[in-house]
Amino acid sequence: MLKIKKMRYLIILIITLSILVGQKSNQSNPISENQIGMASGIFANYGTAGMEVDGYFEVQTQSGLFLESSGIAQLGEQMTLNTSLGIMNEVAPDILMGGGYSNYLEINNEVLHEAFIGLSSNLISGVAFIGLGSELSPNYLTTLNLNSIFPNLIFDSSVMLIMSKDIDFWSNEFGYDIFFNISKTYGSGLSFGYTISSERYEDEETITYNKQGYSKTFKIPVTAQGTFISLFIGWTF
Question: Which single residue of 69, 121, 122, 203 has CA 20 to 30 Å from 28?
Fold first, then answer.
């Protein structure tokens, strides 16, 4: 079975969108400096890549400090956990800027550490993740809010582009993943949506080596690009 390299990107999506939405909410509904706001959610996703469950929990202050933890469990795969700590504030009308520290853990594997910096407006958001060790290369994420372009849409819609080094260990080339998201969230917290994406994943290629009448066949991991579809339903509170 092919291993879809998707979980990390879903974690980035959860963190980025929940932070930005939460900060926008704070701007619209001011709270006192010593008051803490919290948000959380849990979602079930089913699609081409299989079944998975993810969730997040976030704590924010009016001064812009935030702490967020999220996790994803994919059937037949390891569970992943992510924790982020940082600050985000308004630097100009409708423009937010922030940064902080994030770590990423696959259960039974080592912890990966990153610093990130981001900028957000009503139309577009961008985040750069920089590895604090040699195990991670920079990752860049941009989200285009289609509701700013088409304000009469009855659902939330966005396009997200991720650029990072290919998942081949020996490759120095940058690749991309692109997601088109449609969702609807009700006042009760019920949320559901649809995502279609073009993503890189880890495949295998068979190589045959011939020398002096002898041949040897072996498999090597390679990066492939595929189209994936997923549906989700969840609850935010």
Answer: 69
